[in-house]
Amino acid sequence: MLKMIELPYPLNALEPYYSSQTLELHYKILYKGYVDNTNKTQEELKKAREQNDFSNIKCLEKNLSFFGSGIILHELFFENMGPAVPTEPDTKLMEQIIKDFGSYDAFKNQFTEASKAVEASRLVYFSMDSKVEQVRDFAM
Ligand SMILES: [Fe+2]
Fold it and tell me: For residue 13, how far is its CA from the centre of ligand 1 (angstroms)?
């Protein structure tokens, strides 16, 4: 059974950029819902295995993927945000960003524009793709 991670800072720690009400909504309602629904789906999958009844397997697997990705993305957000984040990447990451984007400003511009272009409550994050050793943007 999955459990929610502890929020590593108080609900008001990201203000004024992210209100305590918004963080509370994402942590206590949305993230909790993903955890609860993942556990519920895993119980339903266990029951399906025990009864050898996979008539609903497509829906269950789709739910597990959807709720599970909600957990991963919220934990990624919670664990990478905080009141004391550096204003610039460390030297190694900065070198990779300059290699992949040409400059830090070009990286920030792409991040800003990609963030503006995502729809509804989706998000954009940048991550190191270890297969090609490149910093890439991912719109979720
Ligand atoms: Fe959320």
Answer: 17
Are 30 and 74 found together in one domain?
A: yes
Q: Model-level pTM?
A: 0.74
Ligand 1 center–CA 26 separation, angstroms: 4
Q: How far is the CA of 73 from the centre of ligand 1 (A)?
A: 8
In tens, the pLDDT along 15-35 reads 988 899 999 999 999 999 999
Which residues in the chain come in under a pLDDT of 70?
84-86, 120-122, 132, 137-140
Joined together, the tokens standing for residue 77 give: 């957000």
- Gap from CA of 85 to ligand 1 centroid (Å): 20
Residue 74, domain extent: 20-80
Nearest CA-CA partner of 39 in 70, 17, 79, 84: 70
